[in-house]
Amino acid sequence: MVALRGKEIDAFLARPDSARPIILLFGADSGLVRERAEALIKSAVDDPHDPFALVRLDGDDIAAEPSRLVDEALTIPMFGGRRAIRVRAGSKSFVSSVEALSESALKDCRVVIEAGDLKADAALRKTCERAKNAVTIPCYLDDARAIGSLIDEELRIANLRLAPDARAILAALLGGDRQSSRNELRKLTLYAHGQSEITLDDVIACVSDASDLKLDPVVDYAFAGNPAQVETEFAKAMNAGTYPGLILSAAQRHAALLHKAALLVDQGTPASSAAESGFPRLHFSRKTQVEAALRAWTAPKLVQVIDQLATATLDSRKQAGLAAAIAQRALLSIAVNARRRG
After folding, report:
1. 148-160 b/e (C-beta count within 10 Å ≥ 16 → b)
2. Rounded to 5 degrees, what angle do the CA atoms 328, 149, 89 make?
3. Which of 65, 121, 232, 294 is spaced 20 to 30 A from 131 at the CA atom?
4. Are 81 and 46 in contact (CB under 8 A)?
5. Complete domains list, the chain, with CATH
6. Is the pLDDT of residue 342 over 60?
7. Are 181 and 147 in contact (CB under 8 A)?
8. DSSP strand pairing (22-26 vs 83-88)
9. Residue from 67, 116, 107 nearest 83 by CA
10. pLDDT confidence of residue 267
11. R_g (Cα) of the chain, nearest Å
């Protein structure tokens, strides 16, 4: 049984075992599945863009023609060289093809199978774990440590530093999908090109804003201290199919902007002016709610809220089935506390 974990995965990706050419990638993080698949394909062939070197197959097509996978894997290239097969699992089972493949002697051919979040008793997963020439690699959602490593990796490549307050907010906004997180980081480093350090303002200005998904109302009501409206708007977001993690990300960004505005209030700036300065392009319809939030929250308390939201985000990733309940509880807690302070 070969199911890699932790550092074993990194070691295998850096130097794949030629004795195990069948590789199953699976997990909740589809972006990480794709990223690892691309890395394995790149190291398996001389040119991933060469159609003779790389064959792409759909799992449902293999299910309809079970012999095709083995036939492709045993095909000898016309011009020689190494080959790879990239399979994307669909809704139909092609386990029998994988079983036949595992009994075949593969030479200079790597087979990379991409699948979703497979349970331990899933037939495809069990088949690959039992096969002597296969390996399975889980691709779970990034935890805080993995997100931190990803941030450090991209910053090192761009030769940039990251301000401590910017790191806390940036880390909280990443993690739902590895490729999306990496794309956001590369966009951020490009935005900060020519600087020596990325600031909180850079993160706020550049990293994708969940408020584009019409999540401003639920977040505004939470920080302004209106629990009833939070419940109403949260229900609307859930009915619209919004991922709870996006709502938490919107709340984290909002808390960061409020903190910036609260610091101005501490320096004597009126709440109305601080709201306009702290919130770029603040729509007039939101101004009353933002000013109410500034009256309810101090800068130190907002730092605590940012930590609270970061914890809720991590919990929602660990317990995906309870993500909606965790997000709603976090927002209602903020609303109740704001109401007491207002």
Report:
1. eebbeebbeebeb
2. 70
3. 65
4. yes
5. 7-138 (3.40.50.300), 144-341 (1.20.272.10)
6. no
7. yes
8. unpaired
9. 107
10. 87
11. 24
